[in-house]
Design a protein that fits this description.
eight-stranded parallel β-barrel; about 280 residues; alpha/beta; 2 domains; single chain
Length: about 280
């Protein structure tokens, strides 16, 4: 299992349409932690071949911008996955949509045995029931993270309510945390609704997600702010680290701290926050 304090902070993961060269060009300067070239939903049937042909140029253009360079391929069974995965060999990550079970991940890994890490999109009710087996196989299959595919999941569950998804979103987080994977929340469709986005991002952070997938460049800054540590969290983390560093606390497993009992696990969380801040500079 991965030590989650060492996992790179991914606050913002922007889907970039593979069908739009201008969007690919502009994405490098947006400050997103992860850029996902989308060959699936953002490319229509007549655009998929051209989108696949842009993978190499997109990855080259994004090199050095600081973002994880990912490609969302078409799903297993689409008939397009083989060519997509072959084209994405040079990416930092491959995002696999509509993962139903560990069988889909195994099929992808057969196509690219020594390739980059896989990210599984959890978008169906069936996938929720297979989270345990997906997690148990994650190390062997090079799975790095789980992405909540909220649009497709809501459609499958026949709900238009984010509240109805919350129990399932929490389950995805639990699976990710249980097997050392990175959990990313789903997209917020109303990209012009800044207040609504902020509220949903805050809820996602409260559920335990490290960041959010995005459909529009205007959402990047909001996601980075929402999922990054606040100034109050940073200040408190510094005080807690300093408290444990005092000679009288050096060997203690728990100490009184600002009206609470702080344990070594809280120290590890504080140190992880400060590391995130340092890495983001």
């Amino acid at each position: 299992m991965t030590d989650q304090s060492s996992i790179r902070l991914i606050r913002s993961a922007l889907f970039v349409p593979g069908s739009r060269p201008r969007a690919i060009e502009k994405a490098a300067g947006l400050g997103a932690d992860m850029l996902i070239l989308d060959l699936e939903d953002a490319a229509g049937p007549e655009e998929k071949s051209a989108a696949r042909g842009r993978v190499d140029d997109a990855l080259a253009h994004w090199a050095g911008c600081g973002a994880i360079r990912a490609v969302r391929v078409n799903g297993i069974g689409s008939g397009l996955e083989g060519g997509d995965i072959a084209a994405a060999r040079g990416a930092d990550a491959i995002v696999l949509p509509k993962v139903e079970s560990v069988t889909d991940l195994q099929a992808a890994r057969v196509l690219i045995p020594e390739g980059p890490p896989l990210w599984a999109m959890i978008e169906t009710p069936g996938a929720l029931f297979h989270l345990r087996e997906i997690g148990e196989a994650s190390a062997a299959l090079g799975l790095a993270g789980l992405i909540a595919g909220t649009n497709d999941l809501a459609k499958a569950l026949k709900t238009t309510s984010r509240a109805a998804l919350v129990p399932h979103l929490a389950l995805i987080v639990a699976a990710a945390r249980g097997w050392g994977l990175v959990p990313l929340d789903g997209v917020y469709n109303a990209y012009q609704d800044g207040d609504g986005f902020a509220a949903e991002a805050a809820e996602g952070k409260a559920l335990g997600y490290t960041g959010k997938t995005l459909i529009h460049p205007s959402q990047v800054a909001g996601a980075n702010d929402a999922f990054g540590p606040s100034q109050d969290e940073i200040a408190r983390a510094k005080r807690l680290v300093a408290a444990f560093a005092l000679p009288e606390n050096a060997e203690k497993g728990a100490i009184p701290f600002e009206g609470t009992m702080a344990e070594r696990l809280h120290l590890a969380e504080a140190e992880a926050i400060l590391k995130q801040v340092k890495d983001a500079k």
